[in-house]
From TrEMBL:
Origin species: Pseudorhodoferax soli
Highest rank taxon of the organism: Bacteria
Source taxonomy: Bacteria, Pseudomonadati, Pseudomonadota, Betaproteobacteria, Burkholderiales
Name of the featured protein: Uncharacterized protein
Length: 39
């Protein structure tokens, strides 16, 4: 799990070891990321 202090900025780099579709979401009320396809 990644954390960023309030008011700060950060970056997340995702590295996958296989191709596929991955669901993800932001942990904020009412926000859901669309399914993301890697390759």
């Amino acid at each position: 799990m990644a954390h960023v202090n309030p008011g700060a900025r950060g970056a997340i780099v995702w590295q996958f070891n296989q191709a596929g579709a991955f669901a993800f979401a932001a942990c904020s009320a009412g926000i859901w990321g669309p399914k993301w396809s890697a390759g």
